[in-house]
Amino acid sequence: MWKARYIYLLLLPFFLWMFVFQYGPLYGVQLAFKKYSAKLGIWGSEWIGLGNFERIFITPAAVRAIRNTFFISIGRILLEFPLPIVLAILIDAMRGKRLKKIYQTIFTFPHFLSWVVVGAIIKNFLASNGAINVLLISLGLDKVDFLTNTPVFVAMLFATANWKTMGWSAIIYMAAIAGIDPELYDAAKVDGASRWRQIWHVTLPCIRSTIAIMFILAIGGIMNAGFDQIFNLRNGVVSKAVDILDTYIYDITFEAVPNYGFSTAVGIFKSAINFILLLIANTTVGKLTGEKLYS
User: Fold this and answer.
1) Local confidence band at 107 (pLDDT 50, 70, 90 cut-offs)
2) Residue 256: CATH number of its domain
């Protein structure tokens, strides 16, 4: 270690960052078990044990946020997780490297747009007097309440999330596909396999480990249902149906009389659920496919 001291010195900024931003804030976790008073400070505040956690399950807004979080997250896994895989396979199947790069750029570009910008564009286009409804009226059709009709709004969440993130997520699968031995495809062609058969029997099995790892991570983040998107698109009409735990924590912390103990308890509850689901997903996927995030 002494001989490589300068290399280890390069790690020092990383360890400082980890300590300041990852381990340092753990000091505040005890707020979840206290009735916090700014006058008394964290150490001096009254210890109430699991009182804040019990409050989560008797507060209607918190229960609703938990239900919405699970519903939207499961919808994201079903409707958003497979599409990057499909997109990666379709782009890989294109003829010509130039065409592949063009389509990859087109699909990846939305990732670099902030949800603040995307949300403003969507609201302008999908408002009752927006461009889409003006077009519908000009065609003799009825207007659609994209932003105030709850089922339509939820569908719009999934559609816009796919548009924004699908290309970026596909990069991982495209990298995995690029690592497949071309001789496997040649052997499949010799055996008379069609393009679909090559995808089913060569491409998908070869990227199975990547799909498994990404799926485990998706399950482990199931309580993170997309704060940036929902926060920038929600409105008072649909908020009860789409407010998730992250937006609920924001609301009770910054848009009401703050209760930092309760807010911290909700955050810890969310992280605990994610951790448990990560363990379950890792074990289940490992038994089904033999691939694990960790042993």
Assistant:
1) very high
2) 1.10.3720.10
Cβ neighbors of 265 (< 8 A, separation 6 or more) are 32, 33, 52, 53, 55, 56
pLDDT (tens digit, 9 = 90+) per residue, 149-197? 889 999 999 999 999 999 999 999 999 998 888 898 889 888 888 888 8
Given a cut of 80, is residue 116 above it in pLDDT?
yes
User: Does the residue 42 lie in any domain?
Assistant: no
Average pLDDT over residues 114-139: 89
- CB atoms near residue 239 (< 10 Å): 14
Q: Which residues of 129-153 are buried (b: 16+ CB within 10 A; e: fewer)?
A: ebeebeeeeeeeeeeebbbeeeeeb
Q: Residue 253 belongs to what domain range?
A: 60-109+161-289
Q: Is residue 183 part of a domain?
A: yes
Whole-angstrom distance, CA of residue 60 vs CA of residue 212: 36
Q: For the chain, how many structural domains are there in total?
A: 1
List, for residues 212-262, the tens digit of each pLDDT value. 889 988 988 888 888 899 999 988 888 888 899 999 988 888 877 778 888
278, part of any domain: yes
Bridge partners of 35?
46
CA 51 to chain centre: 30
